[in-house]
Design goal:
Layout (H helix, E strand, L loop, with lengths): L1 E4 L1 E4 L2 E8 L15 H30 L1 H14 L2 H14 L3 H17 L4 H22 L12 E5 L4 H5 L6 E6 L7 H9 L3 E3 L13 E5 L4 E4 L3 H22 L15 E6 L5 H6 L5 E5 L2 H4 L7 H14 L4 E5 L27 H6 L1 H14 L4 E6 L5 H21 L8 E6 L2 H5 L1 H5 L4 E4 L1 H9 L17 H16 L3 E4 L10 H7 L3 E4 L4 H8 L10 H4 L1
Parallel strand pairs: 3-4, 4-5, 5-6, 9-10, 9-16, 10-11, 11-12, 12-13, 13-14, 14-15, 15-16
Antiparallel strand pairs: 1-8, 2-6, 3-7, 7-8
């Protein structure tokens, strides 16, 4: 038996084989004087595999979100066999005697550049599709598993750590839990695990090694313990936890359909955080009242070029439609800091958490912002969409955002495109500056949502991604809680609602403090909804105190 100790960042117990995450090589193989006929056969096999993959993805999308959602994958399948695209590959093989990988990459670059140079906006947008198709064929040639996991059974996924773009493309149906050498409770791996409702452990360090690949393991996301091929005593302890976990799930099922209201009649909105349209299934399975944070950056992180208005519209529409009139708060582009996207070509910064990120990028790149706002407003015709701006520090930023919204609405009016004119506008409260000007901000918007991860980071001067800060990164710190109270008071003075969309919102021990502060909404991982509902229904709001703010 091997025992390892890390930091539990998503609760629960899991059992299965360890599988080390396999990354695609950044540069494909460059064969010299390759036989063109052999390489042509390899390309044909990779194309056939790509078409089969895309047909499966189209079918899955159709089942989950309807025919329109499947169109993207069906379009990609057609591109795989496009005559001009394939001719580019064959020409490269015949003239250069290069590898199949290089021929496909060259064809992808040439074909994408040709489409991007066209005057037609629709054809320009197809350049990103060709790049996606190219990457898929190259991955097939190189034997890189779709979704990063090549296994017939679900696994405990192990890695040094996972970038946001990597977590987005994982085949989540094959993951029982996560274990990583690095990372923190605020890493994207941890956030994904909580969204999926599976255990995760970070900070295992070098004790977690690739030699453990394939070995049977148990992990406990509560204690941070990993046991590989456990002895009888340890196995018994894990099995007992499994049984407790099963019983708790049964108890939580009884909470479905119940109202989120305290014993003395105080209502609380329980919403969910999601990272992609496929997460809506988890929201519905856990009876979330709405979506309080849809991280739209998944579209940018998963793409090789700027996602088009149509691509974004399809994603936002799918979520809004699936939620059937319940509020869907979509956060505008929030990249920078730990979420880097190569094609944005952001300059390297000494301290990116304090640099050009989130709304600063949007205001500096109005065309990128306009594209997203058009997609958001168009999607508002299919549900109750609300738009939320991140990383706000000044009133002038909000006014600029609202001006951009007005321009987009005027464009859509002129084009006769339907949208909801009463679409709510909100801002994230996640900096000390936004706290100090909260009263002025509240007069400009319809709601506040507090990002407690960043608010804690900026208030305490603690890097939220650092795994070794431990007790110094304390979201329960009185300064953070007093900031929450100041924001809540400002919101209610202006007659708007305030929520929390950071990880702190799921902390059951903090619920009574949130009630005392006056928080109206909690947006959490879907699996946190039912436990919070059970706690809310046992609470008495008028007896809750602000004691934690004074300690």
């Amino acid at each position: 038996m091997i025992l390892m100790q890390g930091k539990g960042v998503s609760k629960g117990v899991a059992h299965g084989p360890i599988y080390f995450f396999r990354r695609a090589e950044a540069v494909s193989a460059r064969a010299q004087n390759a036989d063109p006929e052999t390489e042509k056969q390899r390309i044909a096999a990779a194309q056939e595999q790509a078409i089969a993959q895309l047909e499966q993805l189209a079918e899955k999308a159709r089942e989950e979100a309807g025919d329109e959602a499947a169109v993207l994958f069906e379009t990609h399948a057609m591109f795989v066999e496009d005559e001009d695209y394939v001719d580019c590959m064959m020409t490269a093989l015949d003239e250069r005697h290069c590898s199949a990988e290089e021929a496909v990459e060259l064809a992808g670059k040439e074909f994408a550049a040709m489409l991007a140079a066209m005057d037609d906006a629709y054809m320009q947008a197809r350049a990103a599709d060709i790049q996606d198709v190219t990457r898929r064929i190259v991955n097939n040639l190189m034997g890189v598993a779709e979704g990063g996991i090549e296994s017939d059974v679900p696994v405990i996924l192990a890695a040094d750590d996972l970038a946001p773009s990597e977590t987005l493309q994982l085949d989540k149906s094959k993951i029982l839990g996560f274990i990583t050498q690095g990372g923190s409770g605020n890493s994207h791996t941890a956030i994904l695990a909580r969204t999926m409702g599976i255990p995760a452990i970070c900070g295992l360090g070098e004790s977690l090694s690739a030699e453990m690949n394939g070995r049977d393991a148990y992990i406990d996301g509560d204690t941070g313990q990993v046991a590989i091929e456990p002895d009888e005593i340890t196995l018994g302890a894990f099995q007992a936890k499994f049984e407790t976990q099963r019983e708790m799930k049964e108890l939580m099922e009884a909470m479905k359909g119940q109202k989120d209201v305290t014993l003395d009649g105080r209502d609380m909105m329980l919403y969910c955080n999601i990272g992609s349209p496929e997460d809506v299934a988890a929201v519905q399975a856990n009876d979330g009242q709405g979506i309080g944070l849809f991280r739209s950056e998944f579209l940018y992180l998963a793409a090789s070029d700027y996602p088009s208005e149509e691509e974004q519209f399809r994603a936002y529409k799918a979520v809004a439609s699936a939620m059937g009139g319940k509020r869907v708060v979509i956060r505008t582009l929030d990249i920078g800091a730990d979420k880097q996207v190569d094609y944005f070509k952001l300059q390297k910064e000494e301290n990116p958490a304090l640099g050009v990120r989130a709304i600063r990028i949007c205001l500096n790149r109005p065309e990128v912002f306009r594209t997203q706002l058009r997609a958001l407003y168009r999607a508002s015709a299919y549900g109750k969409v609300a738009i939320m701006f991140p990383m706000i520090t000044s009133v002038w930023e909000v006014k600029e955002c609202k001006r951009a919204c007005q321009k987009v609405m005027a464009e859509l009016d002129k084009e006769g495109v339907p949208y909801r004119r009463d679409t709510e506008i909100g801002v994230m409260i996640e900096t000390p500056a936004s706290i100090f000007v909260a009263e002025e901000l509240a007069r400009e918007v319809d709601f506040f949502s507090v990002g407690t991860n960043d608010l804690t980071q900026y208030t305490l001067a603690c890097d939220r991604q650092a795994n070794d800060l431990g007790k110094f990164f304390d979201p329960h710190h009185p300064a953070v809680l007093r900031a929450l109270k100041m924001a809540a008071d400002a919101a209610h003075k202006a007659g708007i609602w305030i929520g929390i969309c950071g990880e702190l919102g799921a902390d059951l021990e903090m619920l009574e403090t949130f009630l005392a502060i006056g928080i109206d909404e909690l947006s959490v991982a879907p699996t946190a909804v039912l436990p919070l509902r059970a706690k809310i229904r046992k609470s008495i709001a008028k007896t809750c105190t602000l004691e934690r703010l004074e300690s």
